[in-house]
From TrEMBL:
Residues 9-90 form the GST N-terminal domain. It comes from the Eukaryota. Keywords: Transferase. SUPFAM superfamilies: Thioredoxin-like. The keyword Transferase applies. It comes from Dichanthelium oligosanthes. This is glutathione transferase. Transmembrane segments: none annotated. Its EC number is 2.5.1.18. One of its GO terms (biological process) is L-phenylalanine catabolic process. One of its GO terms (molecular function) is glutathione transferase activity. The keyword Ubl conjugation does not apply.
Length: 96
């Protein structure tokens, strides 16, 4: 009997709906078809200072993308990583 294939863990995106930096990342990830788990960090409630979040991103900013034990804590870096590092199907930039 074939072993069940393990579902690869999706990256977790720590984000806040009013954050323009987070908008940028959500647009990039969605354009690239990257499935991710959305984790809301309510900046108005100060959740960026929660010790658990600070362990992930000591800069206390959203967005932060967590994939396994790697954390990218800057929206431009996440957008670039989504283009260059992860295996994507749809190119984000025009090719011609
Ligand atoms: N250069 C960073 C800036 C991130 C940033 O400024 N995030 C804001 C929301 S757009 C934030 O988390 N602010 C939390 C705070 O000011 O306490 C990026 O582009 O990701």
């Amino acid at each position: 009997m074939a072993e069940a294939e393990a579902t690869p863990a999706r990256p977790r995106l720590y984000s806040y709906w009013r954050s323009s930096c987070s908008h940028r990342v959500r647009i990039a990830l969605n354009l690239k078809g990257v499935e991710y788990e959305y984790k809301a960090v309510n900046l108005l409630k100060g959740e960026q200072s929660d010790p658990e979040f600070v362990k992930l991103n000591p800069m206390k900013f959203v967005p932060a993308l967590v994939d396994d034990d790697e954390v990218i804590g800057d929206s431009y870096a996440i957008a670039l990583a989504s283009i260059e590092i992860l295996a994507f199907v749809v190119p984000i930039w025009p090719t011609t």
